[in-house]
Amino acid sequence: MPVSSDEQGIRSSHTVGVKAGERLDLYVASVRELSRTQAATLIANGHVTVNGGLEKASYRTLARDTVDILVPPPPGRDIVPEDIPLNIVYEDDALLVVDKPPGMVVHPAPGNWSGTLVNALVGRGGELAEGSGEERPGLVHRLDKETSGLLVVAKTEHAHRTLSAALASRAIRRRYAALCWGHLSDERIGVDAPLARDPRDRQRMAIVKGGKTARTTFVRVARFDSVDLVRAHLHTGRTHQIRVHLSSIGHPVVGDDTYGGGGGRQLASLPPRRHFLHAAWLRLPHPVTGESIELRSPLPEDLRASLLAVAHMPELNDVSDPLHALGFFNADPDDP
Fold it and tell me: Domains of the chain (ranges plus CATH)?
């Protein structure tokens, strides 16, 4: 999938394969990770062609169709403050920690210039560090759009520098809850495999020789009929790291359409596009006092329903947090 960028925006070209027969607006939304409304707007404005010609949003794609998409830049790069409710689980003068919902993009980018976490943070008012770029104020790390859970935001430049250094040195500990298809071959599996953009599809990541070092440890928390609940320990923080590493050992994340886990979504009672990956536990040194801060996030309602659907354990229906009941948080927090 060739992708290029120029002053007119981000261009990409796609050859229709397994999605043949899908409406054009749904196809564009899927391959560019846009909402259906955004995709329909691109089509209506003539920014999408099929085999060189214009088609309506209702056009049904055919196998081998070539779909070219232009996502134009926004009128300006200023971040628009938006009044979007956020679940802030910790906040002081130096930092805050957000429990991000699924479906929310973290920062503005082509196709998602509004409705992001950053738009919401700016809309709250108050100080934010400049962060890692013009559209990423305060961000110390990121979560994928459909990954929920704990995310750290720095308010001051000192906090951002200190937290970024702590993240690089692994002084910030993160644990993710994931459901993966099948059963791990051992109770604990380490994956050490370099990651880079997939040379055949720039929207995906892949294990690539010469890519950036990436290490994850997976620990089985519970084994069910068709899936394992695992605790993913991040040693590095590459894009899509957990998802690619689990897929590489034959156990993709349940609901992950991109890396082979999308089949059986109904069996796992997951809504469209959602994958079962949740940033459930976080421990970090405070950037000013050095005091250790430990935070937990219970499973959001959609993942709780999914876990109950695959676990077949009626006793979980009445507990406030199935992760806690299953022992997800029982590990030594210093366990690598």
Answer: 3-71 (3.10.290.10), 88-168 (3.30.2350.10), 173-330 (3.30.2350.10)
